[in-house]
Amino acid sequence: MEVSFSKEVRQLRLGAGETLHGEGILAITKALLQSGVAYVGGYQGAPVSHLLDVMVQAADYMAELGVHVEACSNEASAAAMLGASIHYPLRGAVTWKSVVGTNVAADALSNLASPGVMGGALIIVGEDYGEGASVIQERSHAFAMKSSLLLLDPRPQLPNMVRMVEQGFALSEACNTPAILQLRVRACHVRGSFECRDNLPPAVSRKALLAEPARFDYEKLAHPPATFRQEKLKTEQRLPAARRYIVEQGLNEIFAGRREDIGIIVQGGLHNTLVRALQQFDLADAFGAAEFPILALNVTYPLVPEQIADFCRGKRAVLVVEEGQPEYIEQEIATTLRRQDLNTAIHGKDLLQMAGEYTVEVVAAGLVNFIARHAADLPLTAAQDWLAANAARRQTVADQLAAPLPPRPPQFCTGCPERPVFSALKLAQANVGAVHVAADIGCHSFATFEPFGFGHTILGYGMSLASRAGVSPMLGRRALAVMGDGGFWHNGLLTGVESALFNKTDAVLLIMKNGYTAATGTQEIISTPDEEQKAGAPDKRLSLVDRNQTIERTLTGLGVTWLRTVPSYEVDAMRRTLEEAFTTEAGGLKVIVAAGECQLERQRRVKPWLAGLLKAGKRVVKIRYGVDADVCSGDHSCIRLSGCPTLTLKDSDDPLKVDPVATVIEGCVGCGLCGENAHAATLCPSFYRVELVQNPGLAERALAAIRRGFIGMWQPA
Amino acid sequence: MNAQQPITILIAALGGEGGGVLAEWLVDIATRAGHPAQATSIPGVAQRTGATTYYVEIHPQTRVELGGRTPVLSLAPVPGCVDLMVASELLEAVRAVQNGYVSPERTTLLTSSQRTLTTFEKLAPGDGRFDSARLLQVAGSNSKRLATFDVAATAREAGTVPSAVLCGAIAGSGVLPFARAAFEEVISASGRGVEASLRGFALGFERSGAALGGAPAPTPAAPADLIVLGHARVVEFQDAAYGELYRQRVGRLRAAEQLADPQGRHGAALAREGARFLALWMAFDDVIRVADLKSRASRFARVRAEAGAAAGDLLRIADHFKPGVTELAGLLPPATGQRLLAWEGRRRRAGKAPLGIALKLRADSISGFLALRLLAGLRPLRRRGQRYAAEQALIERWLAAVEQAAARDWQAGFELALCARLVKGYGATNERAKDNLHHIVEHLAHKDAADIGRARSAALADEAGSGLDQALLQAGAPPRAVKPVPVRWFKAGAR
């Protein structure tokens, strides 16, 4: 794994009275243990990866508590894991990135929600919406509504987030309904502190086993005719029970205001943003005491009609601050008020922007409209001037810059084994023509950025091969599907490979075998080289993915006959293999495995290894590449074929040359791509490879001395 | 500052620079001093070298002063409401300015003066870098106070990461109500690489302080005499006679300029810039030249320095060469060379791979070194070679075109002279570049200066040359002929 969480793992052990300092997602993890969770599962993905990562690294402590932790193969298997809480008094929690993960989990979620649960079931989703998001922009809210799941959206302050986890389990049990707790990106990474309680070892656990399986109970099966009754139970018993608990325990918070004729209803997660927006009008102080009463919904589904009505009663107008579209909450509130025949004016998306993240600026702009309409007595100038100043400043800067600033998207790491594969693909297409490239989710999707620009579609994680099933038959050329080993195991194996084989499709699949789900933080998978291999490797620089053949064996077992494995860094070999795959007379599915271990993982081994050798005064060879500035003519074709962060430009020392020349900066890990490209693409001869030998042996020192002596005699200045 | 208003710090960093650690330090410093503090970030795929931001809010009152009340801190920075903007890279600082976060009334801007180029900027065959001077000017004119120094270099100097240097810069700016000792205490408590971090902190502290005091403007270097340099380059490349040819050609440029601009209103720019690119072109990079450059003592020393080799360390240098038919033909007499090239051309059109031998030549080994010197020793043959003849012919063609254009209009002659900048690269890149120049000379020499200038900029902006073709069409010239690419496809039913 990319990061070590030893410090976080220690904090999980904190007891009553002690204070935890850390990120929101760690607080949530601690709260699970304080709630007596018995089993935890999930699938990694920002912003919630760390929950599972920390739990996995805390394996020893989890064993002490008897908690079972499982790194699931995808979100569907994580959701299905919650089935344990249907029959047994077990509190379970699973986590994933939403909305994409929730999509994958949807089938299991429906079949979990219908029979309902006995033990509390909590689904912690990272609501990847707005700045920093890496997936399609949709709301998880719809899933809660369609499956009658509870949805918590806690006010992003650590003590409250912890309380909502503990209450989430209780609420889930009070109404036999699984609960989703959604956290926005910044809430997951908010760094604060809260006072801990003791962890609660689960009553039933790996240490305290159940003696007998539960008795057969058809009513707990998501199977007709039970499903018809369950559908009614949801609305007749479970949701009403949930509403009672929400009110009794005061899960939603009402902050009093200085005036009562106007109010604001806000998703808990947006409370801080709302307060900061009100401060721009001087309508709230530093502690959140505001001009208007605020109803902060820590539970956004189900709403409690009575609570909503009580809040709105006697108010001329209420503004609903709800992020994303469509405005589910606002619509439900409007319905509630009509049914209760309350004539409070309801505003929301008519005054606030419909789609996209609700920043302080966006909310303030909506408040200007709302206040102007319903509280004309309040001063607007402060906020209006501030908004105008922001716009003016941006315009001024744009004018001063004259040109748009170049973007800086993420890219392949220095020495990434996937970059050379796309260099080869670029060269192959130059030789045999363009191909349709079905892209996928994972680090390799960075190939959609410069300098490559590959990828016609992205249909989801592991979906690339499936997503070209309709293209191949219609195209006079073969289509290429790119997939990572992460995507392959997540579901590409079945949705893609099995389907292509069964339908005898003529297509090319390129699997990036780097040994981990690298993009989410290099979590381990079934095809990860094992620890003994890593410990035993004499040269820690070497890629070890070839030591684990699970992918190759699986493909052969399924009946793939055209299967080639090419080391990622062999650009010319990869180019030839791609060209062969595109042009061979062999029909059917052709699979190329690009084998090269994730460079981040390799460097985690290499750095301490080299440091240790040097410390011990042992012989160390360091490899890096360089460019001869006086040979480089500054045409940058090497960069257009690589894009490596350490292959960049510098001003030429030669006063005659006006264009910058290529240079290899500090950080080069000597992966060899520069040299491979120079050969494969017949680039310029300015690249050289340097081997720096530290603590050299006697023999090689002598040989070097002879060479130096000889060369020195004949060498021009 | 309003006693209730939080102190806000926005940090723009790139993946792997320790921005997260920095934010953590700031929160720890505030917490130890008894102030409520909060940090958030948008790491996204920061570790994959993308741009990322960290945001810290510190309440100005201590918990004691607050007496149990908890301030509501914002998770996201608010445009115009940032007290301290910190950036480890100049473009990212200006990106934050562009996004409206930095305010000339409120924000102190601490940014590294150093650029980490975006891929986008590195791709152009010419110079696609964003103008740093303009970035600095925008940063300065849109912030309350600006401090810039090279954070990356400072970090290297101290043997630490940028976060430690930036922490020092923050302390040095005096925006936060904490003493220097408070910062150092937290860094010391952080455990790993403490000495290096403190060294970096100290340098950052001192340099941001100095920079806020107003850093001295760099003095521009005196412009070199390009014609003298050019002559030296050409003589070194071949011999005195070749240098003489260079002088004659520069003479023709001068004469042409004399006629076009007798009063010298343009300060002899045509002759100067023409002479620059003429020298680079006449000293074209063939195997002889490259072998010579690669086997010099100065080169060995430079490589050693770049590798950071210490006294006792050994160095092995492997040069990547791939000599092909073009390089061989270049050394043969024109007639023979042409036949060889024609043959290779047929092979390529038939879809065969170009012939070439991939070599990793150990320049530091006796055999490798001798091979390089042997090639370098072929210099006398160069004049009789096909490449030499071809280059001279195209140079003459360009020179004549410049003369004609200048006679018509100085600006046109000048723009055409600058077009020699296109000639660079090796192998296919070099061929393409010369084709582009040839096409411009053939079809634009008689057009307006503006047309020629547009075509040149387009050719230097993208390699594919779609921009160039547009510029050509715009000027009423024919686009370049499409190069045939052999497309070999087999698919059941496709043929």
Walkthrough of the structure:
The complex is a heterodimer of chains A (717) and B (495). With 717 residues, chain A is an alpha/beta fold. Chain A is 39% helix and 17% strand. Chain B is α/β, with parallel strands linked by helices and 495 residues long. Among the domains of chain B are: 7-212, Pyruvate-ferredoxin oxidoreductase, PFOR, domain III (Pyruvate-ferredoxin Oxidoreductase, domain 3); 294-384, no CATH class. Chain B is 54% helix and 9% strand. Chain B has 23 helices and eight strands. Chain B has helices at 19-32, 63-66, 90-98, 119-122, 132-141, 151-158, 162-173, 180-189, 194-212, 226-237, 240-260, 269-282, 287-294, 297-306, 325-331, 334-349, 366-376, 379-382, 386-408, 410-418, 427-444, 449-461, 466-474; strands at 7-14, 37-41, 51-58, 84-87, 108-112, 145-149, 314-321, 359-362. In chain B, helix 3 (90-98) links the parallel strand 4 and strand 5 (108-112). Classes of the chains: A alpha/beta (717), B alpha/beta (495). Strand 26 of chain A pairs antiparallel with strand 7 of chain B.
Please identify the structural class of chain B as seen in this structure: alpha/beta
**Biggest interface and residues each:** A-B, 128 and 134 residues
Question: How confident overall, as mean pLDDT of chain B?
Answer: 91
Number of helices of chain A: 25
Tell me the CATH topology of the largest domain in chain A.
Rossmann fold
Uncertain segments of chain B are none
User: Which bin fits the share of residues in helices of chain A?
Assistant: 25-40%
- Biggest beta-sheet profile of chain B: 6 strands, mixed
Strand content of chain A: 15-25%
